[in-house]
Amino acid sequence: RNTFVVDGCCGTATSATLFHLMTNRYARVIGVDRDKPESWVRHHIPERFRNRFVFVSEDMASVTPAVVDRVMRAEWGVGLECLSHFHDSHPCTTLSRADRSGQHRHPDGRPKSDTAILDDAVLEATVRNVEAILRTSPNCLVTIENPFGPWFADLPVVRRLRADPRWHLMIGSYCKLAGLLDGGRSWPQKHTYVLA
Fold this sequence. Notes:
- Helix content is 31%, strand content 19%.
- By secondary structure, the chain is of the alpha/beta class.
- Strands 3-2-1-4-5-7-6 form a seven-stranded mixed β-sheet, sandwiched between helices.
């Protein structure tokens, strides 16, 4: 079955991108990242899958339904209505428990640093774009992940989605869920929220 995927903030492209490319020979993936160059991202994808991967160097806030539709039509001849999965692995630096300095967040979770303010604005814009995508492609699976920590679940945009019965906030542990597709390596204890 043809599967069309957007992997936002794809980084090494070894989670949603690689899962789809390895498990479905008909999968096509658009990887989006503002911080990593295309050559670096492609280096992490086995060569045999690279022909089904398209890279877009953009901030997720700029990835509107029109952008996704334009890339899908140009690359694969299908539009946004065929999108199967929209995954976003939102930047976690300002939401991580690893930030023990308190430089990014006030104790109540409000953004303090410029980076945290930007990251929250990008998540807000990404969610607005996702909601617009779902109006065109209502059967598209949406997943937004972020490492477990004290603030993600209580961000205003996440609270708003959690109030909608169509959305669910789940938690999993990569070290417990790692499988053969993860390269047979040990994973650190990394509990992760998935909003779907």
